[in-house]
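Renewal narrative, Specific Aim 1. Our central claim is that a sequence can be written position by position from structural information alone. The example that follows is taken directly from our test logs and has not been curated for this report. It begins with the structure tokens describing the chain, in the order in which they were read.
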């Protein structure tokens, strides 16, 4: 996404917008992240400087065309330009989502779709926003219902199609055994297979579609059948040349997910070593390498990679992840005493995480690891 943001054509916006780029993991940004309910990256907001009101919201990446349209929409909202009832409802949804009020945002997005005139240009984006808001507010069945209703018949095969299918399939996997979820996956899984092959599908969405397809296969009890999807995913990662360090980092995150899913950590270690060498001050590069070194039972190498990452970590989320990974490697080595010391440090770091959801999940995970470490060794 940074490559898109660096496009020279965006220079025309210099007099229209003040750009603000915030690191999700820096404690100094806590107030903004909490106030706007930021749960994922990338998240984009257009904020009215007069009252700090979010007037346009986009969660997930955008193409250059979509980014320009997003900025235009935000500018119209700030200026109070005349809009259709559907545009006004879409703005209310964005404002609620920008305050972290996901359920209210979903209601507004529904209103937008209900009152929209035929041919409304924002329709597909509004469907995606509705699916996201329902997913974030844990209305999983409603989210899957939106995808099932919209994707097969009503959506053109644009990048929004892949996003909606991906979100709906993830929702249908959240309550795996419920009859409604089984039926939704039956509809959405073939559409996901279609979406991963469409050039219009954004790479981030396609990578998540691979994950959801693997999960869907596993839920049917066909564990072995999920491996071809993982191999295909990993092949795409391996044949993609990153344009910059941010893209390299994103590819490495996906590389680790894919290798872990198919149980082949050693396959990606050489690429991760190359990434750490290319980005020696990037703690993420050390973290991803450490995860795979540990999974490959190369515990000393994993501990060393964690220590290199800890020397460059920028915030409590990264510190917590690195310490958890180091503790896992120490446990693998059989040094449970050292692992416990590291986990105590990880718990302190987890309690400093700014965003409530991430803080809660990390505290719970580290606490469970501490409990396991306290049990007698088998």
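The sequence written for that structure reads:
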């Amino acid at each position: 996404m940074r490559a898109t943001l660096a496009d020279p054509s965006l220079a025309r916006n210099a007099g229209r917008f003040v750009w603000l780029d915030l690191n999700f993991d820096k404690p100094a940004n806590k107030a903004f992240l909490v106030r706007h309910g930021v749960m994922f990256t990338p998240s984009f907001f257009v904020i009215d400087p007069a009252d700090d009101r979010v007037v346009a919201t986009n969660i997930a990446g955008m193409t250059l065309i979509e980014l320009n349209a997003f900025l235009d929409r935000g500018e119209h909202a700030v200026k109070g330009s005349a809009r259709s009832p559907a545009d006004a409802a879409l703005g209310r949804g964005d404002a609620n989502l920008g305050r972290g009020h996901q359920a209210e945002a979903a209601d507004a997005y529904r209103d937008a779709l209900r009152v929209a005139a035929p041919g409304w240009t924002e329709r597909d984006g509004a469907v995606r926003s509705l699916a996201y808001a329902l997913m974030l507010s844990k209305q999983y069945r409603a989210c899957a219902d939106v995808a099932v209703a919209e994707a097969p018949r009503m959506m053109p095969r644009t990048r929004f199609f892949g996003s909606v299918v991906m979100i709906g399939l993830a929702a249908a996997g959240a309550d795996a055994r419920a009859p409604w979820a089984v039926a939704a996956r039956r509809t959405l899984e073939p559409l996901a297979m279609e979406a991963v092959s469409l050039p219009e599908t954004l790479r981030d969405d396609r990578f998540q579609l691979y994950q959801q397809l693997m999960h869907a296969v596993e839920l049917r009890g066909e564990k072995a059948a999920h491996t071809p999807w993982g191999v295909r995913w990993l092949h795409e990662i391996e044949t993609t040349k990153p344009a910059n360090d941010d893209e390299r980092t994103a590819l490495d995150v996906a590389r680790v997910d894919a290798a872990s899913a198919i149980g082949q950590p050693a396959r990606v270690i050489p690429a991760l070593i190359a990434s750490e060498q290319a980005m020696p001050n990037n703690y993420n590069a050390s973290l991803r390498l450490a995860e795979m070194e540990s999974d490959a039972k190369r515990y000393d190498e994993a501990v060393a990679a964690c220590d290199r990452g800890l020397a460059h970590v920028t915030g409590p989320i990264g510190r917590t992840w690195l310490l958890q990974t180091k503790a896992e490697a120490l446990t693998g080595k059989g040094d449970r005493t050292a692992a416990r010391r590291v986990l105590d440090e990880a718990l302190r770091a987890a309690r400093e995480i700014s965003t409530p959801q991430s803080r809660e999940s990390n505290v719970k995970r580290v606490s469970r690891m501490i409990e396991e470490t306290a049990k007698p060794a088998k």
